[in-house]
Amino acid sequence: MKHYVGVVMALLVCGLTACRPGNNQGKDMEKEIKLKLETTAGDIVVKLYNETPKHRDNFVKLAREGVYDGTLFHRVIKDFMIQAGDPQSKTAAKGQSLGAGDVGYTVPAEFVYPRYFHKRGALSAARQSDSVNPEKASSGCQFYIVTGKVYTPASLANMEEQINQMRLQSVFNALAQKHLKDIYKMRRANDQDGLMKLQDELIAEAEKEMEGKPRFEFTPEQQAAYTTVGGTPHLDGEYTVFGEVLEGMDVVDKIQRVKTDRNDRPVENVVISKVTVLED
Q1: Which pTM does this prediction carry?
Q2: What is the DSSP track for 121-141?
Q3: Res 4 pLDDT > 60
């Protein structure tokens, strides 16, 4: 019998609480907004999703106000992502630690999962950690572009199993909270048999509660993307994906390969000289 007490999962939950898109047929018909990021490594063209209107409108607003002009790609991790948008990076000294700059507000999370996920080339919003940001609200200005890596079907299957075990662990933990007095009492009495019996009862109750509920599985679209072009599946449902790269992934790859310091900042600045809203 599996014992879940004290188990710590290393994998982030992918999309278990994310909102699913509703009836957005009208939004789907809207013209997609495209922007060009002119950088010292080359140009990158992105499109913004209409199903994430708060992030779309905010990104366009900041671009038109010139907030991104002169900022750096300040955090670069190969086979993961490249991050930018910190206003403080405009005047940062060489080697200065970056990533804390903002524009004084956050943007509410807009998860459109599983339709939009962290495939290679996804444009997503950075944010603070869950400990200070349980609602997963996005930074008002910082963003990242996914590079990621390619996964095997077996590794994705293992990830699915970890996620489902984590869901079961969560149910078990909630049940255990209701028996804290009994648990503390048995611990003080060194009643190991009593603790094991209660644990087995709670495991059985948790498994029964999970019966009939759908197991987490990656969609066919996710499976296809993550096993071919790649991405970062463990970020799904945790950070808002609000667009994707249309042109210039070769530039993104060039940036992800630059030499970085111990803070993941490029040793030689990679500058976003201008962000322009493209008019069709």
Answers
A1: 0.82
A2: TEEEE----TTT-TT-PEESS
A3: no
